[in-house]
Amino acid sequence: MADIVDHKTRSRMMSGIRGSNTKPEILLRKALHAEGFRFRINVRRLPGTPDIVLPKWNTAILVHGCFWHRHPDCSKATTPSSNTLFWQNKFAANVERDGRALLKLDERGWRTLTIWECAIGRVVQRNLIEEIAAFLYARDPAGSCNDKSVLHGEIISRDTAPGSFYVGSNGLADIPRRSP
User: What family name appears in the similarity comment (predicted)?
Assistant: First the structure.
């Protein structure tokens, strides 16, 4: 299928897509700051350049776009119909790179929290901030971990039930999607 816009227009559109300071990142940062959390952004010395780093909590937050990072079962994680092989390879490389970054952060002793774009939406909901706080408070700021199994969390949906962290089969903490 041919592209519906010419090459020049498509190039301009694609160059406008940013890798950092995206709207979901900015919304989340504002909400975290309003709740009193202090953080650093886009820390290059850490693997994967996490979007938000909370040094006090030894936690890196990665805000993933559903399209670019292939959020499973998300309607935004579509594959363009033209040049599909290119896109499939690109997306596979993105997912692989994300996995390597998580492993390296874990090796360095960092806890990670992945938050998907669709979980943020156009406004940061109160329950999202509560889930982030629950993840952070699983390890107190002094460094002792109240729950040693909670090394990685994932917030996958806007309708996540409060306090729904659990340890998945991979030993990492996940927040499951609430059944409709």
Answer: Belongs to the Vsr family.
